[in-house]
Amino acid sequence: MTALRAVHLQRRPRVRPWQLVAVPVASIAAGLAVGAVFLTLTGHDPTMVYPAMLSAAFTTWFGFTDTLASATPLIGTGLAAAVAFRFGLYNIGAEGQLYAGAIAASGVALALGEAVPAPAAVTALLLAGVAGGMLWIAVPAAARAWLGTSEIITTLLLNYVALYWMRYLIFGSTSFWRDPTSTNFPQGKPIPASAELAELGLTRVHLGLGVAVLAAVLVTLVLNRTRLGFHLRVYGDSEAAASYAGINVRRLVLAVLLASGALAGLAGAGEIGGRAHALDPQGLALGLGYAGIIVAALARYNPLAVVLVAVLLGGVRNAGTALQSLPGGRVPIAISTMLEGAILLFTLGGELFIRYRLRFGRGQGAATAEDLESVPVASPAEPTTR
What we know:
Shape: globular
Radius of gyration: 22 Å
Number of strands: 2
Distance between the termini: 34 Å
CATH topology: ABC transporter involved in vitamin B12 uptake, BtuC
Number of helices: 16
CATH architecture: Orthogonal Bundle
CATH class: Mainly Alpha
Largest sheet: 2 strands, antiparallel
Strand order of the largest sheet: 1-2
Order of helices and strands: HEHHHHHHHHHHHHHHEH
Helix content: 55-70%
Number of domains: 1
Strand content: under 5%
C-alpha cells in the first residue's frame, strides 16, 4: 500500500505540441509490441511478418491502391468520430449510421433505375447516404440536446438495430433490396451502373476516395473559418461559457451529432457505389465504424490528419490477407484486427498522459478522483489552453 500511495498523477502545467504527436506514435508502437508477443506465442516471427505487411500494403502499386480503397470508408467514419469527439460528444454509432446510409443509398439508386444520367444518379446516391446517416442519429442527437441522455448508450445500441435491420432486408425477407434472381445465397439487388462510382483504371480505388478527402477539407474549413466553428470551439472549451455568451448550446449539440451521422452515412454510400454495388450485409459488417474511433483518436481529432491515419490503418487491414501466403505457416488473418484493438486501447489510455504525468512520492498537484472525471480531451486546435 505504501508503494501505491507513493505514485500519483500530476496535472501538466501545459501541453507541448510534441506531446500531441508522441502519444499517438507511442500508442502505435505499443500496439505493434503487443502484436509481436502474440505472433511469437503462436509460432511466427514478427521480424518477418511486419516487413511483409508493410510490403503488401505500401510498396507495390496494386497493394497501395488496395490500401487506399480500404482507407476510403475509414476516412468517413474517422471524420464522424473526430467531429463529435473533438467537442466532447461521443458518437459510438458510426457503425449503425454507415449501415443506415448504405440502406438509404442503395434504395434510392434502385428506385431511380437506369434512366437517370450518371451524374444525377451518383449525386442522389451520396445525398441519400448522408440523409440516412443523419436520420439514424437524429433521435440520439435530440435526446442528448433536450433531455441530456447519454449519446454513448443510444448510438451504441442503435448499431445493433441497424445491423439486424440490414440483415433482415437481405436474409430474412423478400424486400425491395433483395435480388430475386439469386437462387443460392441471398444477395442484394445490384444498383444501376449509372449510380456506380467511377474507378481508377483496374484498381479498386474509386470516386469515393475523392469525396472523402473533400469532406475532410470542408470539415476543416467549417471548423476553422466559420462562425459556427468558432461557436463550437467555445462550446468545446466550456459549455457554461458558451451558454453565458448567448450561444444556443442545444442547436450546437444537434448540429455536431447530425454532421457526425452524415459523414458516417456518406461512408456507407461510398461502399455501396464504389465497392459492393449492392446492399451487402457481410461486406459492410467489418467494424468500420469502430475502426473510425481509432483513426480519430490517433489523428488527435484533426480532420486532415484523419486522412493520413486512415491510410495507415487501411494498410494494416489490407495486409491481413497477404499474411496467408507467407512461407513457414499461415499467419492468422485476425492479426490485423488484433493490432487495431491494441492500438485503440493504448491510444485511449495514452489520452490520460496528455494532461497528466506520473510522479513518485507525495507532492502537490496530485490528481484527485474529481480531476480525473473531468479530464478533457485535448483539442488539436488549442493544445495549450483550458
